[in-house]
Structure formats: structure tokens, C-alpha cells
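Deliverable D5.2: sample structural annotation.
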Amino acid sequence: SHSVSLTPGSRAQQALQKALRSKDEQESDVYFSLKTRDARGQEKELGQGYVSLLKLARDGRNLVSEQVTLQGPKGASVGTLTVSMLAAETLQAALGTAAAPTNASLPRAVGPSAPPSLDDQLSIRVEALSLAASYQRDPRQQRFYVSIDFLGGKEFSSPEVAKAATAAPLQINKQFTIPVDSAHPTARDQLLRAMQPGVAAPQSEIKFRLYHAITAEDGEELASGSLSLRKLWDDPRRQELTSHRLELFDQTTRESSHVMVSTNV
């Protein structure tokens, strides 16, 4: 990967602004060249492709795992290059069509095939837990907690809650906030990749797990469920879930517990 620092007022930013505002749109193209060396060590270009920064700025979108065709001197394809370019906020700020990325987030891209732009953080609140009947009856299971696993990364856990005498929901009220701003490029890139159309379902899911707390450091996993970021993104009405009832299924007892979840994606 390669990154370029574009601090406000720097020569690099001024050069970018000049390219984006040029009458010749090719001035804002980023070129990729495929080269080889012959037996004498001399370099030879086989093909070339490009990405238009101006088009990305106008569309307000990032480029994520998209293929760039490399064309030879006679116009024939000599291969493809898979490219990601996370620069939408910087480009729009340079072009003057949006505020600087430290102060605002971009509008969301429109259309099912467009790569999404993101807020600076992903917020998930686990509000309450309703236990399956067998957990409620089992005297050995007294304390429980819920964890979330985001894109296969670190697992975050809620505080423990004690089982009540009745089957009333147990209040957890734990908010998990995951930064995906430009200061966390790995998480941001993972999230952008996960939310692309056609991505395998497990790669775009937030996994929820229910544990029985055995000791302060150890717990037994009882049940699990998931939310698909891809599905949330595709349906504008669900991008902010409020008190959504999510099933946590126990593969052994075949029973379900439920958590109330709110999200902001």
C-alpha cells in the first residue's frame, strides 16, 4: 500500500487542487503501469491503466477492491489490477465540494452497487437480554454477558448481569463504539470491503455471542446470532436500528434467547 500526506496548505494539497480544477481532466488521473525487464535488465512497459481522482471526488466515493484494466500499446488488455483508494473525503475537501474530513462525514453513496462512504464510527448498543427457558431454570447459570465480534477482530464484552427471579429482560445498556475514521485505516478498509455487494455473508456480519459467566475471567458460550452490515446498508430504513430484537440461537438445546440491539451504521 502507499499513502500520501495532504495537510491543509501543503504543496501536495495545492498540487492536488490544481489537478482537480484543471480544464484537462486527465491531469487528475492516477496511472498504474505494468512493467518487465529483459535479459539485459532494461525496463519495458507492457501496459497501463488509470483511475480518475476527479470522478471519485464528484461521486463522493472511495474505490475498494475494484479492477483496473491495463491496456497495451495497441489497446489490447494485458491484465487487470485490483485497486483500493480511500480518498473520497480528502478529494472532496480539495475540490471544495465538502468540508475537511476532520469535521464532517460524506453523504452516503446511492445505489446498490456503489461503495459506501462512512461515518467516523460504528455504534452498537446492546440494551437488554431475554434468556431462553432452560437458562432461566438452570441453577448453575446465574450470571451472563454478551459479546460482539466485528469483522473477525477483537471481541468486546458487556458487563455481567445477574439472572432475575422472573423471566423479565435483563438490562445491559452497553454501547460499543468502533472507530472507522481515517486515523484507523485498517478498520475502515475492512468495513468498506465488507459492505461491498457480493461479499460473502460472514465477512459483513457483526457476531453476537451469549456467555454464561463461570469466573471473572472465564465464560461458556451458549448461543449466538448476527447482524449483516450489508443488509443494513442496502435498506436505508434500517441503517439506524432502534431496539431491534435479535435472536441468539443455542445449537445444543435448540432454544433461543434474544437481545435488544440498536445500531448506527
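Annotation notes: Residues 11-20 form the longest helix (10 residues). DSSP finds six helices and 13 strands in the chain.
The annotation will be released with the project's public dataset once the embargo ends.
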